[in-house]
Amino acid sequence: MATQHSRSAARLMMAPAVFLLLVWMLVPLSMTLWFSFRRFLPLRGGDQGFVGFENYTRFVSSSSFWPAVQTTLIIVVGILIITVCFGILLSLLLDQPMWGQGIVRILVIAPFFVMPTVSALVWKNMFMDPVNGLLAHLWRFFGADPVVWLSDVPIFSIVMIVSWQWLPFATLILLTAIQSLDSEQLEAAEMDGAPVLKRFWFIILPHLSRAITIVILIQTIFLLSIFAEIFVTTGGAFGTRTLTYLIFQRVLESQNVGLGSAGGVYAIILANIVALFLMRIVGKNLDA
């Protein structure tokens, strides 16, 4: 049992790291809040004074604000559906004994370590290019006209690109959960004559519920700020402009740091609302 002295020593040793982490988080947040209440034009005179909530009003009243929020949520939900469903399938397959199991697992997990910009460039030029892309050649092989993915189905294309990168993360978490499942339960159900689908639905899936909620929570927090894939592929065109990309465009086009900072505060609020909602779901699931 930890004594009062050991707990005090632990807090003392953790204090420098906690302090640096707080500074790392609070300084940018404080600067964002400060700029959001000012008219700051770096290329047109710099700081022009306090404007109150004008930046917030301008940003939220923009005709692009709510479509960007909607696009953000659609992309996040689509990615979550693909990564969770295929993550469960891949984790079940990787849990089966096979030749070269370790190599296969490494290959499946590898896309998670690819930088988002590199991943987007690979998909854009090697797979989705309507002239020389692999998917274009596949379409021609079957006698169909190639799909111009990034303009015909832009949101679906973004979802595919980002899902490819996040699928290994979901697979790894779910595979770990499957490996902790008591095999005696499955053996008992199999001996009682339960078919495969019923064993999955009533034994495996309930056991994975906690891992699924954790995957959804972590991915959602990161996916709400998706930017690189859109910047590299569509540039925010064809209805793929998310809230993060809208903030980028506002700062770049109008050179108004205050307006972009107000958008950043809205993004923080949206992320916290979604995170709190998911935390309640996770809490109920973990307590169950």
Describe the structure.
The chain is mostly helical. It has a domain at 65-240: MetI-like fold. Helices cover 75% and strands 3% of the residues. A two-stranded antiparallel ribbon has the order 1-2. A hairpin with a 4-residue loop joins strand 1 and strand 2. The longest helix has 33 residues, at 4-36. The model has no long low-confidence stretch (mean pLDDT 84).
Structural class: mainly alpha
Mean of pLDDT: 84
What's the tally of helices?
Answer: 13
Biggest sheet details = 2 strands, antiparallel
- The assigned CATH architecture of the domain at 65-240 is Orthogonal Bundle
Strand order of the largest sheet: 1-2
CATH C-level class of the domain at 65-240 is Mainly Alpha
Any low-confidence stretches, pLDDT <50, length ≥5? Answer: none
Strand content: under 5%
The CATH topology of the domain at 65-240 is given as MetI-like fold
State the fourth-level CATH superfamily of the domain at 65-240.
MetI-like
Label the overall shape. Answer: globular
